[in-house]
Design a protein that fits this description.
0% strand; 75 residues; mainly alpha
Length: 75
Amino acid sequence: MTTLELLARQWSIHLLHATWQSTIVVLVILALVRGIPRASSRLRYALLLIALAKFAIPPMLPLPVGVFSAAPPVG
């Protein structure tokens, strides 16, 4: 296995985990936004910004914060 193939395999694993984590976050936040229609627009906007941040932050950023940081390392 070449170095490029190994790198692609590791990247795809990280990408897969980032995808399911982002999907869960977005579904929970969309359910919250739909569930509280009378909430202020500022609150709904803030919740949607959280979902956007989850998509914008790189999945391999080594920060020990958040719900998914307690998961065992991938790979």
